[in-house]
Design brief:
Blueprint (H helix, E strand, L loop, with lengths): L1 E5 L8 E5 L25 H36 L3 H17 L1 H11 L1 H25 L3 H16 L2 H12 L5 H30 L1 H23 L9 H5 L3 H8 L1 H5 L2 H31 L5 H28 L4 H22 L6 H15 L6 H8 L4 H30 L3 H21 L13 E3 L6 H10 L20 H14 L2 E2 L2 E2 L6 E4 L6 E4 L1
Antiparallel strand pairs: 1-2, 1-3, 4-5, 6-7
Helix pairs in contact: 1-5, 1-7, 1-8, 2-5, 2-17, 3-4, 3-6, 3-17, 4-5, 4-6, 4-8, 6-16, 6-17, 7-8, 7-13, 12-15, 12-16, 12-17, 12-18, 13-14, 13-15, 14-15, 14-18, 16-17, 19-20
Length: 541
């Protein structure tokens, strides 16, 4: 049965039709099966598959451009006489820029479309990557130009994942979001592997400049192909009018943004993502050092490559598994919690095993299992935000990613302090496990999959039960010869109208109330309903 949700005083675009489960034995106006005034804009399955591959390549190139500087830092430091502190300043400036555009990128994506933001940002950070060697050679202070370039790179790449979340919530059905997000998320691991192998080879053969040229130009080429073949050459124009003239969903997100952040389920996804990002950044930053300190004679390519090779199929498997479970009828919230349990709960077991004294092969196996299971969050908390608030998923994901980035930087620094203070890696792995369990318990306790971007505090109006008080009372008094008290308690307030009075009442209501797709939209202040057992209508004055 359809219900009408009213968010304002006017009818207009503030009325949105939603599906809910109500008893099917009600008699009245047939329920609507479509949202109004929204239209079904979901991708078909073939189109979704094409976009999945394209977005996978885009995320891969995103990480190729992002990791180009860390790969070339040692060579650039020797050429420009940078100290360790100056090299760290160049590398760290990326994350400060990365934090500032998360929410803004999601906000814009929710209003103009995530594909436009992805296209513009990819063209911008791809061009910035290609021009990096030119800035380094033609500026009198290379350290300043590179720091500024990395900061701008962070600003431009910060909109990528919020735009993906917004695009997925707008174009992909719920039962296929897990596969898309997990597949696209695996592009980060693929990009790290590609730039680590091919970038190191180009660095040795053609110099550090070639790494930036190739990764930057390929990124621009990817943006051009997406614009030419997927967007059909439509200009990605973003105007002030388009930012302020969103549909009902943008109005809803603006009106209920503060209320949304007070929802326990929303707070749960923010806290859980914060914990997940913190532990992931810590492992990513300190695992190479752990292997160097613990196994100094080990080959670097083993522990730098194998965990990422495991992470890619693991991410794909988690997406397929979650979508399969949902399509089989399992509760969406339970599936999200199961994926997050593997990501944070089971992975913590393998992290704790590193606290002992494992041999090198076992240490690589434990780290690979940890990194592989961590990817299950792509089908857990990362998708759950789209279940909760599809109307503002981009902006909300931006909030999550901003919190995760800041907490990740802080936890990386704190882990370094623990290593120096205790001289033991066990303290770091214990910290990672504690943070993981904190986030997991929060998610299991408060996570939901129902929409919370709809204001449930406003009255929900059943079309077949509620009509305008003015018309109901007018009909009742016009047909006063045919009414009798229905109950002693409310004898002066409730009336039963003869069958032909019911017909006249419905006719008057249909003339007075606007109709959309054959459904009567009613005023929410007063009610009117059909008597299923008797022969009339009842008005509550």
């Amino acid at each position: 049965m359809a219900v009408i949700q009213k968010y304002g005083k006017n009818y207009g675009p503030d009325l949105v039709c939603h599906k809910e489960n109500h008893p099917s034995d009600k008699i009245g106006v047939p329920g609507c099966h479509k949202k109004w005034p929204e239209h079904n804009t979901n991708w078909s399955r073939p189109v979704a598959r094409v976009w999945t591959v394209v977005l996978l390549l885009g995320t891969c190139l995103l990480y190729c451009a992002r990791v180009a500087m860390p790969i070339c830092t040692v060579t650039m430091a020797e050429q420009f006489n940078w100290t360790k502190r100056e090299s760290g300043m160049v590398l760290g400036s990326f994350f400060w820029g990365y934090c500032f555009t998360q929410v803004f990128g999601g906000y814009v994506s929710d209003r103009v479309g995530g594909e436009k933001v992805l296209l513009l940002s990819a063209a911008a950070w791809g061009s910035m990557t290609a021009f990096t060697p030119i800035l380094a050679h033609f500026c009198s202070q290379p350290i300043l130009s590179m720091t500024l370039a990395r900061f701008l790179m962070g600003l431009l790449q910060g909109v990528h994942y919020p735009s993906l979340a917004s695009l997925c919530s707008q174009k992909v059905v719920e039962s296929e979001r897990g596969f898309l997000m997990s597949t696209v998320g695996s592009g980060s691991y693929l990009g790290t592997l590609v730039i680590g192998g091919a970038g190191s080879l180009m660095l040795d053969l053609y110099g550090w400049e070639s790494v930036f040229y190739v990764s930057g130009l390929l990124s621009v080429l990817w943006a051009y192909c997406m614009w030419k073949y997927l967007l059909k050459g439509e200009g990605p124009i973003i105007t002030l009018e388009s930012l302020g003239s969103g549909g009902p969903q943008s109005k809803l997100s603006r009106r209920h943004w503060l209320r949304l952040l007070k929802q326990p389920a929303v707070c749960a996804v923010i806290v859980t993502h914060l914990c997940t990002a913190s532990t992931f950044f810590t492992l990513l930053s300190w695992l190479p050092t752990f292997f160097k300190d613990t196994f100094p004679d080990a080959k670097g390519w083993v522990f730098n490559v194998i965990p990422w090779l495991v992470a890619i199929p693991s991410s794909l498997f988690s997406g397929c598994l979650s979508d399969h479970l949902i399509s089989q009828g399992f509760d969406t919230a339970s599936v999200r919690k199961l994926m997050q349990f593997f990501s944070m709960g089971v992975s913590s077991v393998f992290t704790l095993l590193l606290c002992g004294n494992p041999t090198f092969p076992w240490a690589v196996a434990f780290v690979s299992a940890t990194m592989g299971l961590t990817t299950f969050s792509h089908s857990g908390v990362s998708v759950n935000v789209q279940d909760l608030a599809p109307s503002c998923a981009g902006a909300l994901f931006g909030v999550m990613n901003t919190c995760g980035a800041f907490s990740g930087v802080l936890m990386v620094y704190f882990s370094g302090y623990l290593i120096e203070a205790t001289g033991s890696w066990a303290s770091v792995f214990a910290l990672i496990t504690t943070v993981n369990l904190l986030g997991l318990c929060t998610f299991l306790a408060f996570a939901e999959a129902r929409r919370v971007d709809i204001d449930s505090s406003k009255p929900i109006l059943h079309v077949d039960q509620l009509l305008n008080r003015f018309w109901c009372r007018s009909v009742l008094f016009t047909l006063s010869a045919h009414y009798r008290p229905r109950s002693r308690v409310r004898a002066s307030r409730t009336y039963v109208v003869a069958p032909y009075g019911r017909m006249l009442c419905a006719m008057l209501a249909s003339w007075h109330c606007p109709r959309v797709n054959g459904q009567t939209l009613v005023n929410p202040t007063h009610s009117f309903s059909w008597d299923l057992n008797g022969s009339g209508c009842h008005g509550d004055g």
